[in-house]
């Protein structure tokens, strides 16, 4: 299983992996509470993280290992549209600066743990809250699977298990990483990824900065790198002109062509709107100490976007360095193995794998919280105690991670990627109920539910109809905007339909005087801050959990 593995690479990798494993289990004693038997403690880390911790936690949550592999891989494959990940992670921060403090305030005032909790309280609608919860779980599962795919890519490049025909031997390293992830998440809750995020992001920053400084110096500088990439893409386009004209191959380039610029812009905007609808993003935000922590992080988190921009360019560096891989996702790990000394390649591989553990842990906790609060407590055991809720979430987090592991081992990686594409389409359909609900109660609860259903169904149907040179369905995130020949992001088209239906039906339902339920929130709840009545300060170590 490890015959072809470089011993130095493996030694450094194992040392750093063991380090974060110890930190993961030690996190149960970090900022120790009297008990972890509540979702406030196990699922939200005591709701007391300050700016420094939140920056690492939210950054580690958003900028995942798969992001660090997939974004440069798209540039390596010649698709400049893939660079959209950089502008969308810039656009998102002014947006969250505006609405997330309101969600934090109302959630702390009422003890909400999930976005579906807020929807239930705001609209008095269990079906709508259930729709938001199920959407969050469905969208999160393939996201976790992609983190395991990211780990798998690194382990393959290292050579672990690749020479065996026995599936158990071949996937043993991934299974081991899964067991460790599941065990310390169960034991320590959100404190584990919060503590590990320090190590993860320190390693990621170190590796990327060294890579963008050292590698160009060895390859003739950035001018030579871009020149080599342009020559490579031009040669490909000339050699495959007939296939490109027939639609059997995609042209390569360093800039999106004119017809693709709306696609690029809509991908960036739609992804930015969707990002903080994911439950794991909300979990990180609700774990913070105050509204000010969120605003400071909205100002400081773009540092990660700068890092992502540098990382994306490594796809071009891999081309200039002559990296040849069948799977573009292996391009950056292979680049590290070819160009770095073994010990630093071990650091780089560990950084990517640890970079998968942090978001996978937070995602599984967020999905488990949705199950517990908005399905188990809402429909199965309405009198569940805090301890029963925590127990449910711990078990559910194991099942969520196990489901993601099945995705990766039993199905093709392209299936997980396809579902992740759908996840972006689906999760954006929860925006009207969550974000618009933070500002106005005008939308009718049944109109929002109908809009959500239309957006989900139409978006899924549009995605199903997209083919590519390598697959018949779910072949990409773009379709022609209705009535035009302009490519547009499917999630935004479905979202616009969702919004239109919700507005029209709200007018209809209000005209028919359909019952709109009781709003449990008040205007002042959306501006409450730490220290105000009903908004607890940080749960200090040894302090009793929330009543």
SSE blueprint:
Layout: H1 7-26, H2 39-42, H3 51-62, H4 65-76, H5 85-110, H6 115-123, H7 126-158, H8 167-170, H9 172-188, H10 191-218, H11 221-239, H12 241-245, H13 261-275, H14 279-286, H15 291-300, H16 302-312, H17 314-320, H18 331-339, H19 342-380, H20 386-410, H21 413-428, H22 431-434, H23 445-464, E1 478-480, E2 487-489, H24 490-511
Antiparallel strand pairs: 1-2
Helix pairs in contact: 1-9, 1-10, 1-19, 3-10, 3-14, 3-19, 4-17, 4-19, 5-13, 5-15, 5-16, 6-7, 7-19, 7-20, 7-21, 9-19, 9-20, 10-19, 11-17, 13-21, 14-19, 17-18, 18-19, 19-20, 21-23, 21-24, 23-24
- Total number of β-strand segments? 2
Helix and strand string, N-terminal first?
A: HHHHHHHHHHHHHHHHHHHHHHHEEH
Class per helix and strand makeup: mainly alpha
> How large, in whole angstroms, is the Cα Rg?
23 Å
Oligomeric state of this protein: single chain
Beta-strand content bin? under 5%
- Total helical segments: 24
What strand order characterises the main sheet? 1-2
Q: What is the residue-mean pLDDT, rounded to a whole number?
A: 87
Using the alpha-carbon principal axes, give the shape.
globular
Which stretches are poorly predicted, pLDDT < 50 over at least 5 residues? 538-547
Overall helicity: 55-70%
Largest sheet: 2 strands, antiparallel
Q: How far apart are the first and last residues' alpha carbons, in Å?
A: 51 Å
